[in-house]
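Write out structure tokens for Stage 0 sporulation protein A homolog.
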Amino acid sequence: MSNLKFVVVDDAIFMRTLLKRMIEEEEGYTVVGEAGDGHEAIHQAQLKKPDVMTLDITMPDMDGIAAIKEILKVSPHTKIIMVSAMGQQAMVIEAIKLGARDFVVKPFDKSRVFAAIQNVISS
């Protein structure tokens, strides 16, 4: 599937930039929005209706876990890939139960990021 729209959500600008660059290296993948917390993620989902959203678990104000249900309400076709730090396995499981489709762990392994994208777009 080509021409996929992404929204990248992470409270760390460095991580958003890193993930954005990685995604946009792929032909037909475009990052159409970014957000730094769960509230902004919901707004971006509603505004941009992305095909895929990478969503950090730990963020200020509203974390990724709290945002999942609302994101899927405003953009039900968006596939969510959780972004977690090492040791957040319980939170990742909770996110999957709430509707996230896959996860990647920081620091990013490029092949794992693309495997997660392929997994969610083919499901």
